[in-house]
Amino acid sequence: MTHTFFNQQDLTAAEFLRDYWQKKPLLLRQAFPDFQPELDADDIAGLACDEMAESRLITGRDRNLDWELRYGPFNEEVFAALPPRNWTLLVQDVEKHYPPLQALLSTFRFLPHWRIDDLMVSVAAPGGSVGPHVDQYDVFLLQAAGRRRWEISTTFDSTLLPDCELNVLRSFDSEQTWELDPGDILYLPPGVAHHGVAVEPDDDRGEASSATPLCMTWSIGMRAPSAADLLQALGEWLAAAPDEGGRYRDPDIGPSERPGEIDAAALRRLRDLLRPAIEDSERFAAFVGAFLSRYRLAHEPAPPPRATSHTELLQELERGARLHHNPWTRLAWLQTAKGALLFASGAARPCSVQTAMTICDPERLQTATAEQLRVDLNLLCELINEGHLLIEPL
Known about the structure:
It contains 14 helices and 17 strands. By secondary structure, the protein is α+β, with helices and mostly antiparallel strands. The protein has an 8-stranded antiparallel beta sheet. The protein has a 4-stranded antiparallel beta sheet with strand order 6-11-8-9, with no helix packed on it. It has a 3-stranded antiparallel beta sheet with strand order 14-15-16, sandwiched between helices.
């Protein structure tokens, strides 16, 4: 499989994964030549006024340490009152609000699908920034409009600025600096400190120019659950089981001689109580599938106003209708001894490997014929009627 932005470089996806992925930063100049964003700054500002969108507005600059964070939804008056410099608007999940942008995320298909989180768009006036900070996940920073100066450092003091709503580093010394033009991509692995500032294309001083568009950066972030995320979700998942994952037992203990002590044998039994939930491959796999198909899911897919029957679905497919994913769904699957388990927003359904691959791959699903899909009408109807799949009539 070829990938658009690697085609412009003397680099393959396999070489990128071997040499750079989670190892070191990489700047890809003109990864998307002549890039023209499908949405402009006004579109993003309009989306930030929608109560369904997760948005943030950040003002301030490093020199003054006067950072201020506000959460949306916003109204037009807020944007009209913004100063000409030193502000940044961030909007999450833009590809879900505007599904055509999912085509951009498809260029990252060389990565596991469950790892790709969302497309976050940053719109910034000259000097706009969110301060030097560190992310604990991989991110691809695509410059969409204007210019942004990125400074990075792999060795830094992780102390954060006190009394600040943002996770801004108290001190930051740059090791490398680049200015990105539209179409450039900067890849950053987890744990690399970085600082991006919107700058003017032809003015080193960063003075505002009415002829220059606002800086717009599109961030493709990865999902990277922490151990805390997994353990908390595992506890909730076990709590829903009839036996709550089992209960502590100690049938062979002797008299306690040291009040208040949690002895080594008790620690071992408590650890052993947790062990089956993780070491039972089948049970743990079912948990992971349920967890990852819900992790960082901003909104649940909404079911259609009217249920679709098997007969209606088959008729639509025979007329040439196509199925595609609801932008808000998360679909994943894993292989089992009997075939596959398909997960949709936490719920598991058994099916064949072929079916799971077809349903979870947007491209394969849209090109599947009625004859190929009719063998799984029950499953397809369930997913449609729960809102995970949408019917696109011919």
